[in-house]
Design brief:
The structure is a homodimer of 357-residue chains.
Chain A (H helix, E strand, L loop, with lengths): L24 E5 L5 H11 L3 E6 L3 H10 L4 E2 L3 H5 L6 E4 L3 H13 L3 E5 L6 H14 L3 E4 L1 H4 L2 H11 L6 E9 L14 H4 L2 H4 L1 H12 L4 E9 L12 E8 L4 E7 L13 E6 L2 E6 L12 E6 L3 E5 L7 H12 L7 H17 L1 E3 L1
Helix pairs in contact in A: 1-11, 4-5, 10-12
Chain lengths: 357, 357
């Protein structure tokens, strides 16, 4: 039995409304990646009203409004952007288009919530930073592999409580199932998806900065490869990188498209967090050969080894915090600088990656 | 409950004699590291006669001959080296002394079996290579974390059968328990132990070359730190490195001295081997939070996720092969070039490591 692939992974629940019904209308613009469902599930569970859906492809809009019956198909992107009641626009359009769309959304006085990775070039990042400065609006990003996995939320809480002391290192493994026949054309076009360290590496760098409590980092080394999919010459099926944070913590991550068909999930996502007083391992989407349940967290400290089944425990506070941040101008969910720093480091890692084969 | 620390980890059994009793007399010279017990257990199980023990410290000799009653305390190192019947000298002396001792042993027409890491300088390596060339004798190394763990032997067999296709990457995690009060002075002296990437990194690089079927590799990046043990200024409590092999396979490994006291083993050694057709994970010394038994292997391929308890299955063929190699001039156990290449890459990784803190 296979669970949905990463593109269609859309957790539900795990939130409670932070606003009255109708107080936070949002629109979904650009439905290219299935993450839009996870994004809207999170927003809706936190009380957002999914008011509009727009995409150039009517079939995608039709599918979307079946899932969110309160959403209306918009006649154009402009209809959405010109609705003064819409507070936030969420988008999972093609990666290369996410940054420019964000600038357009902010120019209309709305907040923006992009699927990861939010940009594919440093120029797009500079433009987004400038637009945030000019408008005072938010450019948020759906780093789902941390924000939408309960074990990651749980791990963040443990670290904040000092459960493993000072965080010295974060290792992330982010394998994904390729499922090539299900993929759209842009998935195989380098300029459109950005490269593997940008596309799926973005999760990894964000979680490193977060768990290490770091403000910035240097990319020490990075590699990419197309080891085994030469029929897609612009695909990178493997990437990895090492980073050193400004606070001395180190990071290594690997991302790839080699999830075998026999795995009971789209990827055996792991994260190891080494601290001075203990360590945490997360088995995010299943516990191979042991347990198909997601969000298994292992904590080893000075006293014990402990397995914690975190599914159904802490939920996904990000979405409610994001809504409140938009309404109140706060930065509970994630700071703008952290959001952009993770994006920047992906771009830098991708740019300096050495190709292997 | 804690199992013995790494220094006293000495697997037993897992071999069958390959020679008649008395046909392969060996001597243990230099008992500084507890690995000498694992080395001699392996040799004895494969039929070697443990004839002599020598160490400057009589207490260590006394302890040794209690474990191997057939062994006689030698009056001097020379007594051992001048016994014409001794075929091989095994040593777990201080790392900085292992290379020079090996050259001396080879000069006496005997084969040599050093604990890892076998050298601490490139000069020692060059001397050892020259001595092997001059004498035709063997300079073998006890890379125990692969050679003396059944899951690693099992994994090697799986890879040879094509179970995961082409090996693209090996990730190794080699945490160790520090247990500082039990450590001798040399453990904290950089010139004597060599540095963390040499000392415990040597296992990691050897297993990478082996599992990837690689002849050589480049060190892409390396880091070391003394994050949390400033009272031992020459200790490195953290190290990591990335390598790219001549066949395109990539490697990352981390080694550290942060095993928490609550872990039921001296280290949560892991190895992830990514192939084009599947992947293998080894949990070498225990399966945290699930199972205290060592040598758990997980295989995921196109059909299934499979957990394989490898303890008691394949044994440790290295020792018998080494004995036969010594007697017959073959290279079944490990080629001399592979032995030295792993040592060389550790030295290079250590030399180019960037210090973090």
């Amino acid at each position: 039995m296979q669970k949905a692939d990463g593109m269609n992974y859309a957790p539900t629940g795990g939130g409670k409304p932070v606003v009255e019904k109708g107080a936070f209308p949002v629109a979904a613009v650009g439905l290219d990646h299935g993450h839009i469902y996870g994004m809207c599930n999170g927003l809706a569970a936190a009380g957002a009203e999914i008011r509009w859906a727009w995409d150039p492809d009517p079939a995608r809009v039709e599918q979307f409004v079946k899932t969110y019956p309160e959403a209306r198909p918009a006649r154009s992107k402009q209809e959405v952007l010109q609705d003064p009641e819409v507070r936030l626009v969420a988008s999972a359009c093609v990666p290369a288009d996410r940054g420019p769309l964000g600038c357009e959304v902010l120019a209309h006085g709305k907040d923006y919530f992009a699927d990861k990775a939010p940009m594919t070039t440093l120029e797009q990042l500079a433009a987004a930073r400038a637009q945030v400065a000019a408008t005072g609006r938010k450019f948020a990003v759906y780093y789902s592999e941390r924000l939408h996995t309960e074990c990651s939320i749980y791990a963040g809480n443990l670290i904040a409580e000092g459960a493993i002391g000072r965080v010295l290192q974060v290792i992330g493994l982010g394998p994904h199932r390729l499922n090539a026949p299900s993929r759209p054309a842009w998935f195989f076009e380098r300029e459109r998806y950005g490269g593997i360290l940008i596309d799926i590496g973005s999760h990894q760098i964000e979680q490193f900065l977060f768990f290490a409590g770091a403000g910035d980092a240097q990319v020490v080394s990075a590699r990419t490869a197309n080891y085994n999919h030469k029929q897609y010459p612009e695909l990178e099926d493997f990437g990895d990188a090492s980073l050193t944070a400004d606070n001395g913590a180190t990071n290594y991550f690997r991302v790839d498209w080699f999830t075998p068909d026999g795995l009971g999930a789209w990827g055996d996502g792991r994260c190891f967090i080494l601290g001075t007083e203990g360590y945490i391992e997360m088995r995010k989407y299943l516990d191979i050969g042991r347990d198909p349940e997601s969000d298994q967290l292992y904590l080893v400290n000075g006293r014990e080894e402990k397995r914690i089944a975190t599914h159904g425990t802490v939920g996904f506070p990000f979405f409610g915090e994001l809504i409140l941040d938009c309404l109140e101008g706060t930065e509970r969910a994630m700071t703008q600088e952290h959001t952009f720093k993770a994006a920047e480091l992906c771009l830098l890692a991708q740019a300096q990656a050495v190709q292997v084969e």
